[in-house]
Write a structure and sequence with these properties.
- By secondary structure, the protein is an alpha/beta fold.
- It has a single domain, classed as Aldolase class I (TIM Barrel, Alpha-Beta Barrel).
- Helix content is about 30%, strand content about 20%.
- Strand 1 and strand 2 form a beta hairpin.
- Helix 1 packs parallel to helix 2.
- The radius of gyration is 17 Å and the shape is globular.
- Bound molecules: iron/sulfur cluster.
């Protein structure tokens, strides 16, 4: 399995080349979200580990950027990218190869960890997940690993935002379970003061249905005063993946 996939046509990041530091055929994540487009999390864990070598990352990113010019290189893939304890080295290695901005899509569960904060500080863009405004809903939607709580995750998001000098976006996936909590989530967003709030609903095949455009438009009204973008209103760029099979492993509908 390659560590690099895409580029992907991302409605929030543009043409995004994925770097998967988990790179496991079975997802490894600190959550098991009910809307995850990947299969059920076989290994729910908050323990950081090394999954791929930096040499592999260097070789594959070098090769990919010789053949494509993405807008951004994004840490994402077969689980929660901050579980990879060699992300710091991966960032340094990619910086040596290119000036393309570096981003991460994170579920926010490990942002409380100061080592993770120090690593992510070296990125240009952080997209941090916040799907629930309380512990009960957090548990119901995210099924987190033992020891990961709503309060811990929220305080991690706030601490990371305070330290970070790049673009900090919050991503909120709205589904039936949290659609009536838009005001509470908007209130928390105002406390966090992100540069952008990404209003999302799962449009790719998964176990729960997406909300309609009308429902998402109504939800967006709760976020007045914040800089929002919504999945139904954001055009996707054209992107031609270098290896369709690698993309299919992470995003099932794109083959
Ligand atoms: S955090 Fe992402 S990869 Fe992990 S279970 Fe949730 S949606 Fe899937």
């Amino acid at each position: 399995m390659k560590t690099v996939y895409g580029p992907v046509a991302s409605w929030r990041l543009g043409k995004s080349l994925g770097v998967d530091l988990i790179c496991s055929p079975k997802k490894i994540c600190s959550f098991d979200c009910i809307y995850c487009q990947l299969e059920k999390t076989e290994k729910i864990t908050s323990k950081r580990d090394t999954f791929v070598s930096i040499n592999k990352v260097r070789e594959e990113v070098k090769n990919a950027i010789e053949h494509t010019t993405p807008d951004v290189i994004t840490f994402s893939g077969m689980g929660e990218p901050t579980l990879a304890n060699n992300m710091h080295e991966a960032i340094e290695t990619i910086r040596e190869l290119t000036n393309i901005p570096l981003a991460i899509l994170t579920n926010s569960s490990l942002l409380y960890d100061e080592n993770v904060q120090r690593t992510l500080h070296n990125l240009d863009i952080i997209v941090a997940k916040l799907d629930a405004p309380n512990q009960e809903l957090f548990q119901k939607i995210s099924h987190p690993a033992e020891g990961i709580t709503f309060e811990k995750t929220l305080s991690g998001i706030k601490a990371m935002k305070k330290k970070f000098h790049g673009k900090f976006a919050l991503q909120i996936m709205f589904i039936n379970e949290n659609k009536n909590y838009a005001n509470e989530l908007a209130e928390l967003s105002r406390e966090i003061e992100p540069d952008e709030v990404q209003i999302n609903t799962p449009l790719r095949p998964c176990a729960v249905p997406p909300l309609t455009k009308k429902e998402l438009d109504n939800i967006e009204k709760s976020f007045t005063g914040l800089n929002t973008i919504s999945v139904y209103h954001s055009p996707k760029p054209m992107a031609d993946p270098l290896d369709k099979l690698e993309l299919f492993k992470r995003r099932r509908m794109e083959l």
